[in-house]
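We include this case.
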Amino acid sequence: MSSSLVSVITPSYNAEKFISATIESVRTQTYTNWEMIIVDDCSKDTTREILKEYAELDPRIKPIFLEENSGAAVARNTALKAAQGDYVAFLDSDDLWVPHKLEKQLAFMQKNDHAFSFTAYNLMDENGKPLDKVIDVPKQIDYKGLLKNTIIGCLTVMIDTRKVEPLQMPLIRTRQDFALWLKVLREGHIAYGMQEPLANYRIVEGSISSNKLKTAKRNWYVYRKIEKLSLPYASWCFVNYAFYAIKKRVQS
């Protein structure tokens, strides 16, 4: 396996409760050639102080401080523009990676010459307690498949920037990651799944992602306004999305 630089893309906002654990899950990776670009979206708590301390402790941690609150899409895009890696990987400020995540996923991509990969992941509660639930993933998914089944977890994605560029997310409040994956797959790429859970997703009460109704509405917005699907096709995709979302909740 080559020693390719991996750029970790992390937006943060009022993340003082979780950001240290998130950073430590990257610092303890068995693969060490990474940079972690954390873009803070004008946090009002002590997040910025924590980031400055980590930047002094580890030069691979590179915080960027936005001057005005702009949302996760702007924060992620700012990090993507600053990224120097041959690969980018995404990790939100309350989620965690298992120690061999980068090593295993990078080897998987390089062995198979994949441009886009994602993995299964575990669920944990707000306090980091494992819920003994795994979100399984298919071996691969294409554009039409992802429209019907939003199975790709942002915290598990790794993309080869030499094969897929430029990477920028649409400026919408939520689901900008879903929209980006669709854009990449629409261009003809396939996303390949690793069945091994290599990340831990934190379920935080009251977070944007925890509101299923709002998520559904945002998916519909992506179908109609971003992907510009016809009403009948968007409706068909939405029915399938709802089916798979319910199935995932029941199985997990």
